[in-house]
């Protein structure tokens, strides 16, 4: 299908989605989020794709939900529509990993979307923030919840109460991003990382993602039991036999399921 607010490309086993509303710093309009939902679903269903990368422009990953679209809505509107669910929740339901490659602004809904991805690779130009309070509202798509889990209460509370931005260095120190790369190398590095993941055994990748995410949803004892059972189940796969044989034979594994 033809998209207006995003660009979609396949780089070998990597599904690349680029947010593309340059005049609005990739503000997340409902159309953009609906298109994002469709693109994610298409890559989820595409057997050739093992990992996805979500990125924006040099200036902005996304500067938030579209303020001009929201500004005239009433309480009755947003409550009745459950504003905005389409696309936003889809991202958290993907089984394949999604890497956020963030350069420039990731603000408000932009920061929230980045945090819904499985990890964030940041350019040295990245700036993260939850500035909703400066426009008389609060984060609406997980900002107060996910940011607090990433960086702890004190920093999350300060960020959400003041709306100040943090730069890439602070975000890495605080554990919001996995690593920082020079802006000019961000996309190549994100795709290289996604290719590496896509080259692993697909069931192991999906299980790893499920298991790490479980850490947010359950107790330590239950999470460890869940992990142990998934670990055991990998022994039913040909790829576990191949991976361990390849190690013993000092060669690269040739995984069947990827
Ligand atoms: N929405 C709509 N348009 C935007 C947005 C936005 N979030 N951000 C930027 N734009 C537009 C500007 O209006 C401007 O358009 P125009 O040229 O037509 O005037 C264009 O993009 C360029 O922006 P600026 O001229 O402002 O560029 P600067 O480089 O001067 O400033 C900033 C960049 C600092 C990023 C600035 O644009 C800014 O502060 N943007 C708004 C940031 C913000 O407040 N974001 C939070 C929005 S609220 C939100 O995200 C709630 C999420 C809740 C999700 C709920 C769903 C369930």
UniProtKB/TrEMBL annotation:
This is enoyl-CoA hydratase. Its EC number is 4.2.1.17. Could possibly oxidize fatty acids using specific components. It holds the Pfam family ECH_1. It is an enzyme of class 4 (lyase). Keywords: Fatty acid metabolism, Lipid metabolism, Lyase. GO terms for biological process: fatty acid beta-oxidation. NCBIfam families: PRK05862.1. Belongs to the enoyl-CoA hydratase/isomerase family. CDD domains: crotonase-like. The keyword Lyase applies. The keyword Lipid metabolism applies. It catalyses: a 4-saturated-(3S)-3-hydroxyacyl-CoA = a (3E)-enoyl-CoA + H2O; a (3S)-3-hydroxyacyl-CoA = a (2E)-enoyl-CoA + H2O. GO terms for molecular function: enoyl-CoA hydratase activity.
């Amino acid at each position: 299908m033809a998209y207006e607010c995003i660009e979609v490309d396949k780089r070998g086993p990597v599904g690349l989605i680029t947010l593309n509303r340059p005049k609005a710093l990739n503000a997340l309009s409902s159309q953009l989020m609906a298109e994002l939902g469709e693109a994610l679903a298409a890559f989820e269903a595409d057997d050739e794709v093992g990992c996805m990368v979500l990125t924006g422009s040099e200036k902005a990953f996304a500067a938030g939900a579209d303020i001009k679209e929201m500004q005239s809505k009433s309480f009755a509107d947003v409550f009745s529509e459950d504003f905005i669910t389409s696309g936003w929740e889809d991202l958290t339901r993907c089984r394949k990993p999604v890497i956020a490659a963030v350069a420039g602004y990731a603000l408000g809904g932009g920061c929230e979307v980045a945090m819904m991805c499985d990890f964030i690779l940041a350019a040295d130009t990245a700036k993260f923030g939850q500035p909703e309070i400066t426009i008389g509202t609060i984060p609406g798509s997980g900002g107060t919840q996910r940011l607090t889990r990433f960086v702890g209460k004190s920093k999350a509370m300060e960020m959400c109460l003041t709306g100040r931005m943090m730069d890439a260095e602070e975000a890495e120190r605080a554990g919001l991003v996995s690593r920082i790369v020079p802006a000019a190398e961000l996309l190549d590095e994100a795709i290289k990382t996604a290719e590496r993941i896509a080259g692993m055994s697909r069931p192991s990748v999906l299980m790893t993602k499920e298991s790490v995410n479980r850490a947010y949803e359950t107790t330590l004892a239950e999470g460890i039991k869940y992990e142990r059972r998934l670990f055991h189940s990998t022994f039913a796969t040909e790829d576990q036999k191949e991976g361990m044989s390849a190690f013993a034979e000092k060669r690269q594994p040739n995984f069947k399921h990827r």
